[in-house]
Amino acid sequence: MTPPADTAPETTVPRRLSLRFLLRQLLRLALSLAALVTASFAMIHLIPGDPLRQMLGPTAPKALVDQRRAELGLDDSLPAQFGHYLAQLAHGDLGTSFFSSQPVSDIIAQGLPNTLSLAVLATLTALAVAIPLGMWAAVRTHGGRGRRTEAAFTTLTGAAVAIPEYLYGLALLLVFALGLGLLPPAGLTGPASYVLPVAALTLAPAALIARLARVETLRELDTDYMRLAHAKRLPARRLYAVHLLPNTLTATLTMGGLLLGGLITGSVLVENVFAWPGLGQRTVEAITQKDYPVAQAMILVYGALVLVVNFLVDIALGVLDPQSALSAPARQEG
Amino acid sequence: MRRLLRNPLGLAAAVLIAVLVLLALVGPPLFGDQAAAIHPDRINQGASATDPLGTDALGRDLLARTVVATRLTLGLAFLATLIGTVGGVLLGALPAVLPRRAGRLVVATVDILVAFPALLLAMFTAVVTGLGARGAVLGIGVALAPAFARLTHTLTASVAGADYIAAARMLGVPRRRILTRHILPNIAEPLILNTAQSMGAALLGLSAMSFLGMGVQAPSYDWGRLLNEAFGHVYVTPAVVVAPALAVALAGLGFMLLGDTFAKAAAGSAEPLGPTRAPTVPPAREAPDPDAVLEVRDLTVAFPGGVTPVRQVSLTVRAGEIVGLVGESGSGKSMTAAAIGRIVPHPGLVASARSTLCGTDLDALKPPERRALLGSSLAMVFQDPTASLNPALRVGGQLAEVATQHDGATRAEARSRAVRRLSRVHIRRPEQVARQYPHELSGGMRQRAVIAMGLMGTPRLIIADEPTTALDVTVQREVLRVLREAVDDTRAGALFISHDIAVVGELCDRVSVMYAGRVVEELPADALHRARHPYTRALIGSLPGMDTDRSRPLATIPGRQPSPADVHDGCPFADRCASAGARCSTRPALTTRGTGHTVACWEA
């Protein structure tokens, strides 16, 4: 062998760019959270007329309205109120419910775990079902083969996407709980209680992710490195799980992350269908009863959940696909 | 529109929406009284003869109420879509009109808003505006706007990059006028397509709000409100939720399908091709070449519609030899390589009189055995090294897997072999490179890594498909040297595919020239100057040399190669050939003109 003589420059990209990527995402999260906190604070002040009057009704005595207003600190100047709001938030104090006099933080502590477990379980189920299904459909329909499979797949998933989660919830409730009596219709009494709400939340996103996974997989199947991997005669399992999957995941998980955001709020509807002891029922109650402190806090919590989920998805993508993490900052600058 | 009606799903969706619109128009006058009639004797009943879909808490017919509610439901959804569309388009077009900094702020705000789910934005608005249809419509409208704004912004940005916009800018057309005259008309179509889907989304969102009690309030009712009222009795008479739920589901489906069909009609879809007719090739009669690592006889690849990119190509590659395969783009070189490696894309079919790799008949092997043989004995190198390495996997792992999968090596063995192979293709710091991802390497390094990957097994044949075309000239030499060394070290044979006859002449031992899917001349590389086929001579003649007269245009071959779908009886090159004669209307066969030199030409 001749001694190494490189004419090509050995370019290596420094790893610290990943840190820059992380910082950038953190900054983004912080800015979005700040906007959310401001919006939730502004919410009460945007209500036309007197929010206290709205809350207590036209028949409440003026003295009571004034007293409550003073309690809430709504007589102070706006900057002072905002400062107070931020200080409270920093201490985890989200105010007190007008109707139950329960601290809002207690309400959230009770409901949040149930809401989160439902949403996380539904997301995992959707991804676990949809990605293999989409990849299978892609392999079956690649290059114009399996036209019937393709037609059936796109029609069924298209229809499944169009139906909202609460209608799935109602249908599942009617058939499996009230009709067949196989599963509990309401509340959280054990693992079986999860089945129907999770199924209701999963169906539409799973159909959407499966479609996306198929499109992504089709695109990847045409790349040179998949041709080369074919030429290396790797077993199917390795070919699809190791070579194909990571490259289809980026777009699929981006979508999945956005769906998880939608799924968190979709859980509001499903929780109401199945009387789930999460945040959803309390949120609807608070908004319909004009319990503003609770409504304000709930919107803050749901919004923050969505933002944190998006942040985590971005970070996960950076780990999975270093190229996107490295090019993302450049893209944003450009 | 005609395409829409030809698609059965599109037709179904159009009919469904038409029926809904009709019901919205005639429902209230026809069934209004029936929907309002209170029957205390039939409260919360399931299906019956008088009330096919049950009654509500006041004994009112649910079917009639569902039909009557169509008007309010569709009307509110339309209003919300209108708010979302107009608001979104304005918001999305703002950055094109505003000063740069303010425009960026708008884009950033939209970016943040898009992240929030529609229902959350709608609930926020509902709190601020108070409960009721007005708040819900406003809320859903506001919730739809960010997506529209982002779409408008993306479309505007893509159109704004077009040359005619640049020209308008240069002519000093004001920005607002550019927006209204040039940009909006060009982005209108995708925006309108999006509206059908948004209408569906608005309808579902409003129904959800009403179902939760945050939308339409009694005594008005839309489908969501009906669901809300019925849901209170669902445990007692489950059937009462069926009518409004079905209505929401059908309307959602209708709008979604219509949007899909619009989008598909706009994108256009390819007509399906017929099935491929398998090419037929009689088996070879002459004895196999004992020295050959690769021997193919009459290799033919066929696609639907009579497209035959490779026609009866015969090639022999012996151990330690590099055979060049040259020709213009579209001559079938790469498809020949794919056919040898058995990676012809679907729906192509391959046939040959004989395909042997290292003396084993590929067609006689069972698929797993063929996979094992090709996986360990054949190495492939493609044109674009950026695309040949999987971007998501480390370089070392992609090399090592060949050893773990085909030779049963342990991970550590495979890893150290990968590092040794990387250093063999002159990659410096191979341990470090093995840990890196493909995008961290330069193009030349990547291509050498791909060659190293081919050397992981015990390749008997290396197929290199234009391995240097995508590289700089300086890096090209490096890759060619590595390839030559690999062949010399391993005594493998190599098939080197290139359109560059100069490179082929330098690197290869023998050369096969392909034209229109066939080999037209085969000769030793050092005999290229004695080439007899007019096409080979033209290829060589089109090379600029040191003594080329620079004042005259470079020599080119006039005319174009026939397409792989053409069926021609004569010599395919005749149309472009200066010396073509009468005999050229029948296709010449390859005939021997000296040692290792065959030509398919009547006139040569």
UniProtKB/TrEMBL annotation, chain A:
Belongs to the binding-protein-dependent transport system permease family. PROSITE patterns: ABC_TM1 (PS50928). This is ABC transporter permease. Residues 112-313 form the ABC transmembrane type-1 domain. It is a multi-pass membrane protein. It is found in: Cell membrane. InterPro entries: BPD_transp_1_N (IPR045621), MetI-like (IPR000515), MetI-like_sf (IPR035906). It holds the Pfam family BPD_transp_1_N. The chain crosses the membrane at residues 26-47, 116-139, 151-182, 194-213, 240-264, 299-320. Keywords: Cell membrane, Membrane, Transmembrane, Transmembrane helix, Transport.
TrEMBL record, chain B:
PROSITE patterns: ABC_TM1, ABC_TRANSPORTER_1, ABC_TRANSPORTER_2. Keywords: ATP-binding, Cell membrane, Membrane, Nucleotide-binding, Transmembrane, Transmembrane helix, Transport. SMART domains: AAA (SM00382). The chain crosses the membrane at residues 72-98, 105-131, 191-214, 234-258. Signal peptide: none annotated. Residues 294-541 form the ABC transporter domain. It holds the Pfam family BPD_transp_1. Residues 70-259 form the ABC transmembrane type-1 domain. InterPro entries: AAA+_ATPase, ABC_Ni/Peptide_Import, ABC_transporter-like_ATP-bd, ABC_transporter-like_CS, MetI-like, MetI-like_sf, Oligopep_ABC_C, OppC_N. It is found in: Cell membrane; Membrane. The keyword Hydrolase does not apply. It comes from the Bacteria. CDD domains: ABC_NikE_OppD_transporters (cd03257), TM_PBP2 (cd06261). Its main location: membrane. It is a multi-pass membrane protein; Peripheral membrane protein. Belongs to the ABC transporter superfamily. Belongs to the binding-protein-dependent transport system permease family. PANTHER family: DIPEPTIDE TRANSPORT ATP-BINDING PROTEIN DPPD (PTHR43297:SF2), OLIGOPEPTIDE TRANSPORT ATP-BINDING PROTEIN APPD (PTHR43297). This is Dipeptide/oligopeptide/nickel ABC transporter permease/ATP-binding protein. It comes from Streptomyces pyxinicus. The lineage of its organism: Bacteria, Bacillati, Actinomycetota, Actinomycetes, Kitasatosporales.
